[in-house]
Design brief:
Blueprint lengths: L50 E6 L6 E7 L11 E5 L7 E4 L5 E5 L8 E3 L1
């Protein structure tokens, strides 16, 4: 989140998943020191939401096909997440849609109303 301070440490894992000791964890960055690292994101603003979500029924039973417009900043997008559920605003299910702009929901009940968010 923007304007929020995060503190972290780093561990290494070997081939057998044994962890190394924690790296230095410096929570007192008020005084500049060798372990204090600060970073500024290249673009601190969240990307705009995708637009143009269209849901179609291919009439093949238990499926809905979703499509949407690619986000204007696709180079900053890792993936889209599709949420869906039967009660309104109760998105019980979700799936990652990678960087694609189409997604097929399957395993749905014919004749049921589904609510979808992207």
């Amino acid at each position: 989140m923007n304007t929020k301070t995060y503190f972290y440490y780093v561990v290494a894992l070997d081939g057998e998943l044994f962890e190394s000791r924690w790296s230095n964890f410096n929570s007192d960055c008020g005084v500049s020191g060798p372990d204090c690292v600060t970073a500024t994101p290249l673009n601190p603003n969240p990307p705009p939401p995708p637009t143009g979500l269209v849901v179609t029924d291919p009439e093949t039973g238990g499926k809905l096909v979703l499509s949407w417009n690619a986000n204007a900043t696709t180079d900053e997008i890792d993936h889209y997440t599709v949420w869906w559920g039967r009660p309104r605003r109760d998105y019980s299910f979700s799936a990652s849609a990678a960087k694609q702009t189409t997604f097929t929901l399957s395993g749905l009940n014919d004749g049921s109303t589904y609510h979808v968010a992207l």
